[in-house]
## 1
Amino acid sequence: MTFTATNARPAPRRSFIAQNPSVLWFLLALAVFTLGVTLLSEATGTGFLSTSFVKTLGKTLCLCLVAIAMDVVWGYCGILSLGHMAFFGIGGYAIGMWLMYARTEIIVTRSLMAAPIPPTEQEIVDSIGTQIFGVVGSSEFPLIWSFADSLFLQLLMVIAVPGLLALVFGWLAFRSRVTGVYLSILTQAMTLALSLYLFQNDSGLRGNNGLSGLQNIPGLEEMGQATLSIVFFWASALALGMGYVMFAWVVSGKMGSVIRGIRDNEARVRFLGYPVERFKLFVFTLTAVVAAIAGALYYPQAGIINPAEIAPIASIYLAVWVAIGGRGRLYGAAIGAAFVSLLSSWFTGGGAPDINLGFYRIQWTDWWLILLGLSFVAVTLFAPKGIGGLFDLLSHRHAPDRVGDYGPDKGALRAEEGSEPEEAK
Amino acid sequence: MSTLLELSGVSVSFDGFKAINNLSFQIGEPEMRAIIGPNGAGKTTFMDIITGKTRPDEGRVLWGEKGVSLLSMSESQIAQAGIGRKFQKPTVFEAQTVRENLAMALKNKRGPFDVLFYRKSAEGAARIDAIAEEIGLTSDLARPAGELSHGQKQWLEIGMLLAQDPRLLLVDEPAAGMTPSEREHTTDLLKRAAQTRAVVVVEHDMEFVRRLDCKVTVLHEGSVLAEGRLDHVTQNKDVIDVYLGR
Ligand SMILES: Nc1ncnc2c1ncn2[C@@H]1O[C@H](COP(=O)(O)OP(=O)(O)OP(=O)(O)O)[C@@H](O)[C@H]1O
Ligand SMILES: [Mg+2]
């Protein structure tokens, strides 16, 4: 048998890493950073970094993780979700319920055991209920706390609750082809509804008190916060590394091709036979679950979660981080989240010195948001590639050098297929 | 030759304006059909209806041996059933390379998980290379499609159509922006495709249509004005009045 096409090449099969060198660089940077922090921490190193700062860094890694999830759903798939911090918060609540229950159980059991008559099981549960829900004038366990005594089930909830919510919400929204700004508004509405619900005392999640004492891990009391902070820092770094590799894999190859196609022209993708709605639902749900995992790692380091954390503005910040870091590249989102959130805590924590203009004193605690807003506008207008765009200077990624004309020419005079009525020529 | 697609009594109006008016149409497999008609005759709208982009107000659109109705199917289901389309204004994914564009169109399972776990195969790559050869973009496979000229984008979209391996090809003004020799190549390509498939070509260029050497349907104000060989319809008085006379 003779082949006419003698130059038929085999499939270009290069390894995943070879095709995505940025994954290696990111993992390397993360590893170096993790090692550095470990060597400088109080528990495992020189003590140059305070425990609370290690916690801040660990939390920052969680924010990087939710930011790359946001980048996948927005930067790659074109769905500007303004609700991903709600999923992040749900993850925090889900793990917080177990943390609070189990710790209260230990305390209650210890104190009741000291009593002359050993307590019954029911008495212990009632007493835990009083401890947890006393602040909202209740002692009954609401239905949603049914699994709170089981770490395993509650970890399952970290994934299942936001996953199901995203699935149902996404199915309803994408199926009716809600896109663009309408979808963003819808996700904001979902977020607002959720936070308003949680603010109520009878929501079963302690209203605006939220869940607290989450930094105390039941069973690990011996360990001490300094060591715990490093444990959580490592866990966060591991989650970020794994999340990064997973998302890099998802957005490379054919899946990446299809979802970027959806971002740029979803109708065209449909006419190629791809069920666009199902792809969007997949991306939306997957990123929601990752956001929730990030939240479940974040809040034990923060120590407290309350409904304000789920407020719509949080999700808007998330979008701002990703935009400043650079959409459509995972490391850009991570850099944006780390950079802006650390800078934000520096400014609002009183780290930045006030500027005295003589007639007016600029206090950064008040002015930081305005600075952030202006930077956001500036990035959007003048540097749409964000901070991540700086890396293009290194790798010489450049805009297409176009040859030939754009068209359209005679015979293809429509701006959009079948749109805008045009008088007969 | 058996009937592959059948439209009957299809009408659609936009804000009271009847773009398609009681249109009936049939095409067999294999068959080549050219559709001509003045601007605004409804040629593109006709393709919009078949591909599910526009829902008709009335009428039936039946597909395949079993005569399933396309009206209850989504755009992606229709495409998966074997209807491929090349748009009037070339629409390719400009931010992606020519190879990625072709790979996306390549006939494969279309579900999210099929795509996620899709592994590049040697056959797939060979097919892409063969198509690239056919459309003259072999040396451009690694370039972003946005860099291509208008004519090259036309070619790329034709390539994507071939990669889909559809039973019915709807080709809206393929020759726009092409040089005479490229037009010739396009007719050859379409004629070859029509040996095993149904091909519907909308084109304004009469030379192009003549070279296709097939049955011609003349559309005017949303319905069929005449049908037959090109020489036959060009002698039809109505056709001369509305179309050729202008
Ligand atoms: N979505 C729409 N809304 C309103 N009017 C439309 C729409 N789509 C098409 N039309 C109108 O329907 C008529 C038929 O349009 P169509 O695009 O099908 O014509 P055509 O035969 O493809 O013309 P051309 O040769 O210019 O491509 C035109 O008058 C057009 O303005
Ligand atoms: Mg048209």
## 2
Amino acid sequence: MTPLDPPNPPLTRKDFTSDQEVRWCPGCGDYAILAAVQRMLPELGVRRENTVFISGIGCSSRFPYYMNTYGFHTIHGRAPAIATGLKLANPQLDVWLITGDGDGLSIGGNHLMHLLRRNLNLQIILFNNRIYGLTKGQYSPTSLLGKRSPSSPMGSVDNPIAPAAFALGCGARFVARGVDTDAKNLIATLTRAHEFQGTGFVEVFQNCPVFNDGAFDHFTAKDVAAQQQLHLEHGKPMRFGDDKGLRLRPGSLDIEVVTVGENGVTEADLLVHDETNRAQAFLLANLEPPAFPVAVGVLFRSDENLVPFEVGMHEQNKQARARGLGDINALMRKGHTWKVDGDPTGDQPG
Amino acid sequence: MDTFASTNSTSQRELIESVVIRFAGDSGDGMQLTGSQFSDTTALMGNDLSTLPDFPAEIRAPAGTTFGVSGFQVHFAAHDIMTPGDAPDVLVAMNPAALKVNLRDLKPGGLLVVNTGAFTAGNLKKAGYDKNPLEDSSLDGYRLLKIDITKHTLQSVESFGLGNKEAVRAKNMWTLGLMMWMFGRERESTAEWLRGKFAKNPNIAEANIAALNAGHVYGETAEMPQGIHAYEVPKARLQEGHYRNVTGNEATAWGLLTGGKLAGLELVLGSYPITPASTILHSLSNLRAYGITTFQAEDEIAAVCAAIGASYAGALGITTTSGPGLALKTEAIGLAVSTELPLVVVDVQRGGPSTGLPTKTEQSDLLFAVYGRNGDCPLVVLAASTPGDCFTMAVEAVRLATKYMTPVILLTDGFLANSAEPWKIPDINSFEPFPVKHRTEPAGFHPFLRDPQTLARNWAVPGTPGLEHRIGGLEKNYDSGNISYDPDNHHKMVKVRAAKIAGVGDDIPLQKIDQGDDSGDLLVVGWGSTYGAISSAVLGARKAGLKVSHAHIRYMHPMPKNLGEVLKRFKHVLVPEMNNGMLVKILRSDYLVDARGLNKIAGQPFKIAEIEAEIRGLLASA
Ligand SMILES: Cc1ncc(C[n+]2csc(CCOP(=O)(O)OP(=O)(O)O)c2C)c(N)n1
Ligand code: SF4
Ligand SMILES: [Mg+2]
């Protein structure tokens, strides 16, 4: 993608805010994510007319209406497929795909899988509130076992999936996480996703105060965040809390939590985050409190170049059209043809 | 065979007007190739023709079984013809299973050519014969030509040093040579085609040509049984022009490209393989030089959604499928109706419900196409009536989709898809272009601003400065395009969407009478691939003095504005359809006429005689 010149004069947050009244419930985490994105876009220097938000259906999928850019609120689960067609038709567009845990992982899981493996050059923000918000609180594919909801009154026995692990399994090349209320880190992470040439997948832990309030409090609440979140930085040892860190349990492929300074453990024993290591990213994606911290930031970024799908397709188009657009009249006259002359009054073939 | 009154005395060939030949054999016997080579040559020699391939549902059914039989019927004539023929005059049976499956269709007294080399005890058993039918009297009602084609083929390719399997394979070419002798066809174009096909393996090409020639020589020299000899079918009087054979799926692919060119738009095809639509995907995937990007999606939903995404981006999205795929696409098609984006959906119908009869033809998606979506969800539905008409209607689909900002469903079917006819190749420069203009003017813009005449909304495309806007499947305010839950507004929007589609009725040709007088005792109304059979049946009935006419509908929704009035000029209306009564239901409900149905739901096209008998019966009892 040839980046367009940044807008001149530079845009502000207000320029990216549409005139539509935001209709999420008071206190919904979606507000914070919207604000973070509206603050970030001017910093990215992108143009409004070149920016497209595509969503499926769900509370989160209302997002495009609030952005003063191009936007398409599509149907449940299908945003990845619509975005694929959009990018095939115009690879220059800067596309953000907005989806929820139900939209992206339940009804649209198939499309999400294929988008990720095809590595289209766009960004995905998956709003994970571990619940179906819009339809009033049923459990979702990310709801924890035992979750009581209108459709699981006895508690869910439906084993959940970790979105980041799903994405890695699908062959995603950029997988990251953020927290709705942590604007600074969220903006930094989304910015990295935007820089990435390929699909940038970002799961955002989003609180739904109405149907799943506090689902992430055990690692996002102010008083525990530092102890329960591991902020990943490429090339830096995996440290969290006051003196905690992660290392490989000697002789195994498991991760364990250790305390630096105890039992002879030093910082040199800790795992050093390597964004480009997919196996390590899998381990990080599956860490769950209380035994482990939740890994946030960029879990994985592939350093192998894989041409994004739409770019590959356009390269082929160019090859096919190297000598200009084909002549349809000539095409239809190739192969076995014959001329009938001298009988203008004859029958039209049936 | 329709014979001329007198035979031509200067040659030993008997002059005949028309003939129907069916080649039948095991899937591995190459009958489709044999049939299509015979047809191509026949077209080159100036006959009119129509073909009907019949594939088994299994890709590689066990050899020798009845369900592995593959057939190819070709009807050719010295005059204009419209169908592949009701019943074969000649049946070529390459093995016992082919005989078993096809014999019941052969005309009494018809010519039966069998490869005795394949009538082994094992093959007879697999085909379910207790006794060898070649050795009892069960085939006495036919003119039987028994040849050990396998043995003759092996002899003819002996000098090429092929393995046994490769050598036996050439028997379809030997058979083709024999039939080319019998019907006076030239072999050059097949030889040329073989050289091209086996360019990397000239030895195989030459071996096949040797087999082809040997079959021909056999015909010339061998003593034929009583009543079997060579024929000649003179040229047909076709209209002046440049011709080729075309199948419906090829014509559809070229029509879509032509539509894109006339609209000045890049095309994006999203498709998921499904019989009998896949060959459109294959063709277009090969034609990226002609302004199309082709995308094999993960399923039909993704395919249509990608097409919609492409249309949103300002290209024209297309998706091609068959019944089960159309079922999956319905929700997304509703989105395109609601967001008023152009979209072309090609449905190559096949036997249903569910997986149904994948390789057989049917017309049973009509009601589904016209009505089968949630909500009041009108769109344009077109139907092609011949393989060549697939081209015209595909162009028309693109024109209407882009002019009215609407999905258009083009219905074809398995019969049209695979059958071929000589086609006068159109000059695309003779079509009126219909260039699309995306909106660029910001002043006064909102996304659902409508053209007062067509009611089409303006098409603003991402990338255009100043036109940033949001669309979606929620109801929108008529005046601003913003989300609206207002009751009166919703009522108005449903009416506007319906009026827009109804208005297409002013932009399509009036219904014509395809054959016969403007009024009379009976109007036979058809749609889709029944065109040829109805046309021939009406011709027959008219020759017998009956006051019958034929009208064929190509615009299924909305229908031509004068249709109601046309129907009312006839005492009776008969609607032959390859379904359980769909068009007849629409005509009865929309025009309050007492139309009657004639339904054939056998996975096979109508025979002319079936329709003609119904016409006679109806008028006799009326
Ligand atoms: C085809 C279809 N099925 C069901 C629905 C109803 N529906 C709308 S949103 C939704 C779940 C949304 O959950 P999620 O994606 O997690 O979004 P959230 O509301 O939590 O942000 C469902 C089931 C629909 N709109 N379309
Ligand atoms: S239901 Fe939950 S997710 Fe939806 S808007 Fe309300 S708080 Fe937000
Ligand atoms: Mg949710």
